[in-house]
Amino acid sequence: MSATPHKNRAARRVLAAAAGLATVGALFAAMPATATEPGRGSDHGSSHGHGNQKPKTVDVQLLSFNDLHGNLEAPAGSAGTVTEKQADGTTKAIPAGGVEYLATSLRNARKGNAYSITAAGGDMVGASPLLSGLFHDEPTIEALNKIDLDVTTVGNHEFDEGAVELARLQNGGCHPTEGCYEKGKKFKGADFPYLAANVTSEKTGKPVLKPYTIWKKNGVKVGFIGVTLEGTPNIVTAEGVKGLKFHDEIETVNKYAKELERQGVKSIVALIHEGGAPASTSYNYDCDSPGAGDGISGPIVDIAKGISPSVDALVTGHTHQAYACTIPDPAGNPRLVTSASSFGKLYTDTTLTYDLRTNDIVRTSVKSANHVVTREQPKAKDMTDLIARWNKLAAPIANAPQGFISADINGRGATTPESPLGDVIADAQLAGMAPADKGGAQIAFMNPGGIRADLVYKASGSEGDGVVTYGEAFTVQPFTNMMNAVDLTGAQVITALQQQVSGANEASPKILQVSKGFTYTLDMTKTGAARVVTDSVKLNGEAIDPAKTYRVAMNEFLGGGGDGFAVLGQGKNKLVGPADLDLFNAYLAANSSAQAPLAPPAADRITILK
Predict the structure, then answer these.
(1) Where are the beta strands (DSSP E) in 96-234?
(2) What is the pLDDT of residue 312?
(3) Is 348 helix (H, G, I), strand (E, B) or coil?
(4) What CA–CA distance (Å, rounded) separates 511 from 602?
(5) Radius of gyration of the chain (CA)
(6) What are the start-end ranges of the H helices in 121-189?
(7) What angle do CA 48, 51, 53 make, to 5 degrees?
(8) Which helix (H) or strand (E) holds 590?
């Protein structure tokens, strides 16, 4: 998921407590290469033996989830539903998610399991709604501690605010510029280890966090190796990954699998923040069933096929998809690969049969399934209290009205590459950067991955139907990137459109959201750059002139060439403008009222031929 990190520091300073600042330990401080996590669970559970004989195997429960993105409250709109396939072949949308329900689901799932581990596949924080993002995701770390998360890998979003801030989330301490948010309370950091085996310091060459950890209980040992996608620098701003190197996922996992084996750890799980796409969006789709088609596609397939057979299971993420599939390992044997959608809407329950004689997993006995975090179950009181406490701190900013809408304006939940909300955001950026003294922009481009939610007409809370609050606007655009206006030639503009659907983006196109007056056609029956019908590219009805210079507005992530748009990083005469969130809110204020709310635009600027 495309990401960019700069937070709204001005808004946050309103909340900074008067308590003194705490010094954050450097991320690159010496850390042990391994860690042993005490096992959680009761002393009863499944075992496999006969009579008074010592059991030969025990069942180890692995609960997992991924891509929480600081969604403590139940996500609104389409972001808060999962698709369930029914017996008659139809599908049903089920409301899901929210840590009050996730905590209940996990705690209930653990009951009766003597050996239970809870692991995560990265992006626990970053691109978070206001409740967590306003406080630099301290509320989410606190919630994960209470949920009893045992281990997680880093995702690309863990680097949104840079390596030192990630170290603070792990080690604790109040924010270096904003201080402590609650008087007399110092942020304690994560009780669980963040793993970053393939992220090293350019200076030392060593992993910036622990590469792996070993979970132990009653002689049972399970090793966890954590990696994020090697391409993280392409989807995070340069400042977020400054001083870091990201290495090949396969080589890294295989390296540390050997190290774990040398320590006598033969049961190994890889936590990989990279994923794929199943052939069906239904969470209960059986991608291993006969006639299931291609099952799963995407980057995780080749990664899984290259990871050593000594690794017994892969918990993945990043693509926000739901699957529990098998992919052959290099020896040709099936191996489990799972992902639990996003935002805490699902959790995966995997049974790993552990052989007490060999200390290895019996892979033929591994079973796994995704389960809905339904909102029909009781809420976990400690999570309700946590949310209420942080909401009270956030309320002065979160509840401030910004504008009005007449209906849902879909962004993340749009079913077409051009989204109504994408058009609104691009228009807001153009409006803010068009004045001559503000940048003189004629065109605005918005990266689709930076749109994190929908604007929902009937949102949760008490602000009233159709009112867009600061908190809701922040949830849509949580990165608060600074805007840029640059000179690009018409030829470069066309190249940017071609980079949406070619090169690294050919398999999974990243369709830029465009401002009003800019139109063109994509012919998806063709391949690569040829998909862009060049003579269809127009501004206000006039064909783009390859030799002419245009002023183009975009956020600093795109302006740095992020998401594979290298040509956008070649802009000249850059002017730095306000934050994208500020322009979004200003546009809502200027273009909507209670009497004349903003309606969803038609999203008809890009014509797509299939």
Answers:
(1) 116-120, 151-153, 194-195, 199-201, 212-217, 220-228
(2) 98
(3) strand
(4) 17
(5) 24
(6) 130-133, 138-147, 163-171
(7) 70
(8) helix 580-591
Q: What is the pLDDT of residue 237?
A: 86
Of 278, 380, 389, 388, residue with least CA distance to 338: 278
pLDDT averaged over the chain? 91
- What pLDDT was estimated at residue 248? 98
Q: How many CB atoms lie within 10 A of CB 491?
A: 15
Dist CA 296 CA 287 (whole Å): 7
Structure tokens that stand for 366 in this block: 């591994």
Q: Tens digits of per-residue pLDDT, 179-227?
A: 999 999 999 999 999 999 999 999 999 999 999 999 999 999 999 999 9
Q: What is the model's pTM?
A: 0.88
Place of tokens 């309320």: 395
Cα distances from 83 to residues 362, 419, 584, in angstroms, run 32, 20, 31
The residue to which tokens 């809502």 are assigned? 588
* CA of residue 16 relative to chain centroid, distance: 26
- 176-196 burial: b if 16+ Cβ within 10 Å, else e: eebbbbbeeeebebbebbbbb
Q: For residue 428, give the nearest of 599, 595, 559, 581 by alpha carbon.
A: 581
Residue of 254, 278, 419, 401 lying closest to 339 (CA atoms) = 278
What's the token pair of residue 368? 């796994």
Helices (H), 336-461: 381-398, 420-433
CA distance 136 to 151: 20
Q: For 121-136, write each residue's pLDDT tens digit.
A: 999 999 999 999 999 9
The residue type found at 88 is D
